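Protein of interest.
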Amino acid sequence: MAWIFLLIAGLCEIAWAIGLKYTRGFSLLLPSIATLVAMVASIGFLGLALKTLPVGTAYAVWTGIGAVGTVVLGIYLFHEPANWPRLVSIGLVLIGIIGLKVTS
């Protein structure tokens, strides 16, 4: 169950990171509220995962999910560059996440 909580926490991290773009510096009310809710949910689910998982592993996987998801959505939603060095780098982060999951 801890890994499911960690996955949800990572997805919420992606939501708040992308949500920040839509808040326009927290000047728009609804996107700002949604972003703050996603932030609280992300930390809350991370806390639940930490009841069982080692803190180093959980934190690295949480930030990795957030980083990979945010880059992928940045490419898709905001037309950020998808050049090979960026994609290789994200692939390495993904390999690290998988490695931590397999060894924990």
